[in-house]
Amino acid sequence: MPFPSRHRWFGAATFAAMLLTLLFLVTPLVAILTNTDPRSVFDSLGEPANREALLLSLETTTAAMLIVVAVGTPAAYWLAMSSFRGRSMVLTAIELPLVMPPIVAGIALLAAFGPKGLFGPALNDLGVELVFETAGVVVALIFVSSPFYIRQAIAVFSALDPGIVDASRTLGSGPCRTFFKVAIPVARPGLASGLALAWGRALGEFGATLLFAGSLAAVTETAPLAIFARFSEPDGFNQAIALSVILIIVSVALLAAVKLTGGDRAMEGRGL
Asked: Which of 115, 138, 149, 219 is the S-S candidate for 198 at Cβ 3.0 to 4.6 Å?
């Protein structure tokens, strides 16, 4: 948007701020890519421990996202369509993990589901073990990533045209059919955007997973934990860089998926 001549200084200042922000965010990514030999990426994939870590990240994040979508979507729809006393407190509780330090999240999970935690003894009686188990990784990923999806889903459902929902019900559709046949199809691009945000957060999770599930090779050592482990080794810096590049590629793929589904345009069109 052009600025009047007397306000061009403001346009120049905002452009400079944008350029500074772009340089700050892009420079580290350019640095890591330019310092990586493509052959080292393939060599890193040749290491069994690295392959296991990447595969574990794929498996656990996929499992976590399936649960987040299956439970979070109807939960977000109910919150978007409901008005009740204490609603703001419920939303605050759901969003709290967004600002909670990952280490604190890990301690909170231990306090709740650890062997001596609030529900730990009951889980042990049922034969369910989470600490130092792959299931514990999934629980940690759900805890830190689900608010990203649910928050986005609430915003998307809240932005639905009430006339569409009312028309569906007028034509005889019940709440369940309206949810699956009307609300979800209309909100799908925005939900995809929220899913990408949640998946990206889960893919990069480190602190809560380390504290709650540990870092056991082929059991709980996800790609971020593997990167830290390689970085701690005397000659492991190149492997850490190579694994980082792979995660960057996956992150770019997630963003590309959002672009293809139109999730970013849907959010812009709704002002979200």
From this structure: 149
**Pairwise CA distance, residues 231 & 225, whole Å:** 10
CA 169 to chain centre: 34
Residue 40 lies in a domain: no
Angle formed by the axes of helices 134-158 and 184-203, to 10°? 140
Phi (first) and psi of residue 69, to 5 degrees: -70, -45
Q: How does pLDDT run across 117-175, given as a tens digit for each residue?
A: 999 999 999 999 999 999 999 999 999 999 999 999 999 999 988 888 878 877 877 88
Residue type, 189: P
70 or 160, which is more confident = 70
**CA 267 to CA 272: how far, in whole Å?**
5
Per the structure block, which two tokens stand in for 198? Answer: 């949640």
Length of the chain: 272
The vertex-240 CA angle with 237 and 244, nearest 5°, equals: 140
What is the reported pTM?
A: 0.87
Q: Indicate the average pLDDT of the chain.
A: 88
Residue 228: domain span? 48-270
CA separation for the pair 85, 97 (Å, rounded): 22
CATH number, domain containing residue 180: 1.10.3720.10
* 197 contacts 255 by C-beta, under 8 angstroms: no
